[in-house]
Amino acid sequence: MNTSVTEEQVAAYRRDGFVRIPNIIDKADAARYAKAALAARDRPRAAPADPTFTHVMQLWQQDETLRELTLSPVLAAAATALAGIPLRLYHDHLLIKEPHNGAATEFHQDQPYWPHLGSRHSLSAWVALVDVPATRGCMSFIPGSHRYQGLHSQDLRDADNLMKAAPELLWEPRVTVPLRAGDCTFHHSLTAHTASPNLTDDPRIAHVVVYMDAETRFDPRQRDTGVPLVEDDGTTEGVAFPDADFPRLP
Ligand code: SIN
Ligand code: NI
């Protein structure tokens, strides 16, 4: 298991806005987490079916096994080294692309969805719990796109949405990053990324842990859906994210 990131990996992340870290989770642990992920998927939920992916949030508050993964000190230490600032958990989510789901996750940035005030940095760990070759809903990134700030939030189902907002990105190279079970990528919350449809007979199981600047404040004017709500105190300076729901890590 990889317990720390190298200087080269930090430099690559800061240059490109993403980096692949092989073997951050043991294979045996990845298999254990994959089993817990499928059990979590099969619990009754209110969320409507979505061809893009089956989406289950806040596993760390619902499932002992996946809590261990979300709060992993190894993942959090790597995220902190890459970001270069103290972090806290924003949320986790399981993203399962069912076999032959027929839908890509279209190009987008993550940051515009989030009600974060004064954020210096936020990033996600995308952990492959099964092998994810290019044909199984694999992620691709546009290197350097984390320099595009201030774009509106983009529609995950519209392939042109981000490209209309930033037409230069149409002509930038895209890097596809297949992962083995237990590998992960970290991506900056402004890095443009997409995931292809799952063309295979097996589910693509990814567990995503989102980290934010420990000092970021909640912007009550911009509600996110699905994450725990922060009480709005009516001010425009934002509200502190409470440690109980957004623990400081590692
Ligand atoms: C996906 O896995 O389909 C998308 C992940 C992301 O947007 O971070
Ligand atoms: Ni995303």
UniProtKB/TrEMBL annotation:
The keyword Aminoacyl-tRNA synthetase does not apply. Keywords: Dioxygenase, Oxidoreductase. Residues 222-250 are annotated as: Disordered. It holds the Pfam family PhyH. Coiled coil: none annotated. One of its GO terms (molecular function) is 2-oxoglutarate-dependent dioxygenase activity. It comes from the Bacteria. PANTHER family: PHYTANOYL-COA DIOXYGENASE DOMAIN CONTAINING 1, PHYTANOYL-COA HYDROXYLASE. This is Phytanoyl-CoA dioxygenase. It comes from Streptomyces venezuelae.
